[in-house]
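2 proteins. here.
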Amino acid sequence: MKYIDLSHTFKKDMPVFPGDSIAELKQVAFFEKNGYNSYYLQSGMHVGTHIDAPFHMKPNGKKLSEIEPEHFIGKAKIIDVRGQNPIKADALNTIKIEYDNILLLYTAHDKYYRTNKYYKNFPVITTAFAELVIEKGIKIVGFDSPSPDAYPYDVHKLLFANDVLIIENLTGLGQLLNIDEFEIIALPVKFHSAGAPVRVVARF
């Protein structure tokens, strides 16, 4: 088996969505002084590579801790949508994807991570695309960009209403383009929350 890490490293100086609090990650104990190393973390849950649960924008939606672990693991497909904005439904017809699979969208927008351009004019999907995702029974959609849509977040709400989870801020998806069959593992910590950072790994 081989593995590809599709996650940004969680650091204290990583970018956050405009309006969100900056993550604070600092070392509070040092081996030379304390005999061990330890860190303190204060952060929003929607920073870096992270996964959104339905409760994020659905008042009665599931929180991460209420979702079965198998929902975070599954066979996956990737589509190359570089240069497309908005990303329309017919882009999904370029692949054969099965019920309960995971879908990744390679936009290459992650090349702007840590620049001012990352949160401006990022590619989004249409409502028709989201409806086709639901029709095909896809359980997670992942993006190498900060969001699948913008305010008022109708795509988010539509996907969450059908228990489709969203992964944002992936990176390195281009490495998967020539791999026909792979699995995604995206297990977050079991937080009773609307989302959380996650380490996403492709296994093939």
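next one coming up
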Amino acid sequence: MKKSVFLLTLTTISAVMFLSSCAKKEGCMDQAALNFDPEAEVDMGCEYATDDDVAVTLHMHQNIGGGELVEESMYTINGVATNLNLVQFYVSAITLVDAAGNEITNDDVYLLVTPEEEAYSIGNFPAGDYTQIKFDIGIDSVTNHADPSKYDIGNPLGAQFPSMHWGWSFGYIFLRIDGEADADGNGVPDTDGQFEMHLGSDAYLATIEIDFPITIAEGNENIVHLDADWDTFFTGVDMANDNTTHVTDNAALSSLLYENIFNMFSAEE
């Protein structure tokens, strides 16, 4: 009789534990794992990065006026004939984000992006499924105020010609556009309409977040294709009369361009 009672009790306890576990959310409970779920109450296995990281490439496609941007070419921007002679900007802190919100960042990768070059190596990332890419337009504060002379010629952080560095106080020019606009309304951009749009300083670091589902794996393409829409960058800019800024000398224009940066990047369609 006692044996029967014991078996009945054991069965009841097992059933309660089973029902209790069914009511709890299952998932990975290790914060160091790729698939960590902060809401999980029952650990059902985790996935971890391995040493078999995969090289990933960024393709930045730069567009304006419905076509490809080519330096030293003329475009009609906000109704004004404009020559874009130099267009380049820094990209850093490149990060891939998975569905659980885990982020993998290559902090040591700095790119100086130009229209002539579409493909850039952005380092190695663990194989897996990602849902988003994040990156900065500009350079982090520590690197921004470091000594650029310690970098070799050819390094994006080294000396550039024309220069992409203001000096110790402001650091790097995060984004530089030089050109000529039609200042007198004759339909021809010329030297009388020369302009410079130079953005930089820590306050103008812009973090971009783009939904971009991609599976990184050996044998896959492993390319992040993005568009940079310069029509969006120039939105609201008076190209004939208010087109030059070095941040402090025209804060209103700098702020306008800075806000436009957040909307100019997207996944290539």
